[in-house]
Amino acid sequence: MHAGVSAAGRPPAASSKVPQLFDRRAVRRRLARSARMEPPDLLRASARMLLERLDEFQHSPKACLLLGARHRSLVHAVRRHARIDHLTVLTPDAVCTVAAPAEAVVGDEELLPFAAEAFDAVLAPLALHRVNDLPGTFVQIRRILRPGGLFLASLPAEETLRELREVLLEAEAATTGGAALRVPPFADVQTLGNLLPRAGFAFPVADIDRRQLGFKSVGVLLRTLARAGERGGLRTSVADRLERPTFLEACRLYEARYPHHGGGITASLDLVTLTGQVPPGPR
């Protein structure tokens, strides 16, 4: 058993009152599948941003936890960082431990299986936007951090993938007479930032980076999301696979409304970087 893993094996179960927007088992299956693929550039860039933020604090964590670890190159990048002494990764499935060149624990971000004050830093690059109880997860992260510890996370927010969400809903309604949510809603930066002090973090910071990304086609965008493990996972009765008439109508709508200046289509991304620190203990 890892030294930081709780002797009980798991923390208390999440409250049943929390709305269950995501099927966590389905999310973990898709993340495990994506572990066999090369991570998208955005995931690597997100990890680099968090490591740069770590450098700004002049913080050298002896024990660091990486959440959402499923790609070897991502884990390598964090492990090589000069300020990190010992790295533990939380992976969504046993298949991902092969891709994690560090001490690996299979688990779920909603139920962190670690003892209190086990880590000096927690990094979560694009790892927490599909948990059902985000405030509760922040509280758990606060619990496993030592006094003075750092929490650094990046999450998509607000307008992210708004174009895809819009055209999929409209295309499915037009071709089938009904529609289900296929792209989840994302929280705004103020809401995300407010979660930090609520969870007990001091010096909360929430920065937002707004981008317009270009893709050759809707199909390329959907394949990129699948490669990142970001397709599916919502609790819905609708099949994950789009029917061909719906897909073609979505492509038509997207290309007409949101062309990219360099050709292809445009997709919005609002990336929020969160920083919180555990108050130092008594001297």
In short:
The protein is α/β, with parallel strands linked by helices and 283 residues long. The protein contains 9 helices and 7 strands; from the N terminus they run ααβαβαββαβααβααβ.
What does this structure look like?
The protein is α/β, with parallel strands linked by helices and 283 residues long. 35% of the residues lie in helices and 22% in strands. The protein contains nine helices and seven strands, in the order ααβαβαββαβααβααβ. It has a seven-stranded mixed sheet, sandwiched between helices. Strand 2, helix 4 and strand 3 form a beta-alpha-beta unit. Helix 2 runs parallel beside helix 3 and helix 6 packs across helix 9. The longest helix is centred in the N-terminal third of the chain and has 16 residues. About 3% of the residues have low confidence.
Summarize the SSE layout with pairings:
Blueprint lengths: L23 H11 L6 H16 L6 E5 L4 H8 L6 E6 L2 H4 L5 E4 L12 E7 L8 H11 E13 L4 H15 L12 H10 L3 E14 L2 H10 L16 H14 L7 E13 L6
Parallel strand pairs: 1-2, 1-4, 2-3, 4-5
Antiparallel strand pairs: 5-7, 6-7
Helix pairs in contact: 2-3, 6-9
- Numbering strands along the chain, what is their spatial order in the largest sheet? 3-2-1-4-5-7-6
Largest β sheet strand count, sense and barrel closure: 7 strands, mixed
Give the % helix: 25-40%
The Cα radius of gyration reads 19 Å
